[in-house]
Design a protein that fits this description.
The protein is α/β, with parallel strands linked by helices. The chain folds into two domains: about 5-175, Peroxisomal Thiolase, Chain A, domain 1; about 180-325, Thiolase/Chalcone synthase (Peroxisomal Thiolase, Chain A, domain 1, 3-Layer(aba) Sandwich), CATH 3.40.47.10. It contains eleven helices and 13 strands. The chain has helices at about 20-25, 35-40, 55-70, 95-100, 115-130, 155, 205-210, 220-240, 260-270, 280-285, 290-300; strands at about 5-15, 20, 45, 80, 110, 135-145, 160-170, 180-185, 195, 215-220, 250-255, 310-315, 320-325. The strands form four sheets. The protein has a five-stranded mixed beta sheet with strand order 1-7-6-4-5, with helices on both faces. It has a four-stranded mixed beta sheet with strand order 8-13-12-11, with helices on both faces. Strands 2-3 form a two-stranded antiparallel sheet. The chain is globular and about 55 Å long. It binds oxa(dethia)-CoA. Oxa(dethia)-CoA binds near residues 31 and 220.
Length: about 325
Amino acid sequence: MSQYGAIIAGTGSFVPEKRLTNDDLSKMVDTNDEWIVQRTGIRERRVVSEGESTATLATAAARKALEAAGIEPKDLDLIVCGTISGEMVFPSTACFVAAALGLNSTPAFDISAACSGFLYTLQTGVSFIKSGLYRNVLVIGAETLSRLTDYTDRGSCILFGDGAGALVLQRSPDPKLGVIYSSLHADGHGWEMLCCKPGSRHPIGEALLAERNQYMKIRGREVYKFAVQRFEELIEDALRKCELKPEDVSLIVPHQVNQRIIDSAMHKLGLGMEKAYVNIDKYGNTSAASIPIAFDEAVRAGKINPGDVIVMVAFGAGLTWANAVVRM
Ligand code: UT7
């Protein structure tokens, strides 16, 4: 066990101004507000306008997190960004964020773990702090999924939105504070359930574009079942490993995947819905950005306070799944 804790010193989030409502989508594909609200809980999502991109959203969230932590960009030892819709194929989005913050030698890199991306990023930042190497690490989840969404496919286009969230992690002398537990998992056998194909196997060209494979493809039903099962297992694992009872948990901040998935898992676990922070109605599924946006909103709404125990759970493409427990 490390002699250090990795505490959350500040949080921030940013979403684009532009709203894409269910009624807007019903003019683009054969769908309607009632179906979308009933099946997903989503009422609207935010999408970027010209001039906005993953790095601009990430930088705006990062500035707010730095301000909340009361530190300057120059105090950062590392920047890690979880994203699957980065600024470019390369360089990393984290490099663009570092440059926008005025930094010119702070290490910066991205992590790709889809909807579990923020918890993979968090655990990476925590590990650098607990090892004793770094004091202040900025961890970000940022996505511009609207750029990867097929707005002719009603099975997927209703789900996704854009946004970014960031946390400043700081070294503490108390190892029992901050992120006290995390587990990360992956099973690449399930990659076809949820993917976006452009890359070395499917280079961008006519064959790819003819199948509209420049966009995300999902098998919604299969992902649904996977998500409900993992949600429950991840919560049970977090409670067992941290020797917590359900009543010890102040708030669960889940990946915002689908209101029905969250309701169903909370019900099966015997937990009241007031224990889950949900904002999917406003933003849809923002993949790696969903947990840090929700976490920041909960902090700013006074729903996360010193001494609280927070459990985060995520699941997504890869397949990947992950949890984290924080003692504030
Ligand atoms: O974070 C990881 C990424 N997230 C996900 O992959 C989301 C997980 N999955 C889900 O949230 C749900 O599976 C969906 C919301 C995607 C779909 O809900 P569902 O209850 O699983 O619906 P379904 O796919 O079984 O489709 C039921 C019916 C079908 O019609 P038929 O075959 O019964 O006539 C669909 O064609 O609903 C139809 N449908 C729609 N109808 C109106 C599918 N999409 C729509 C739509 N509007 N947007």
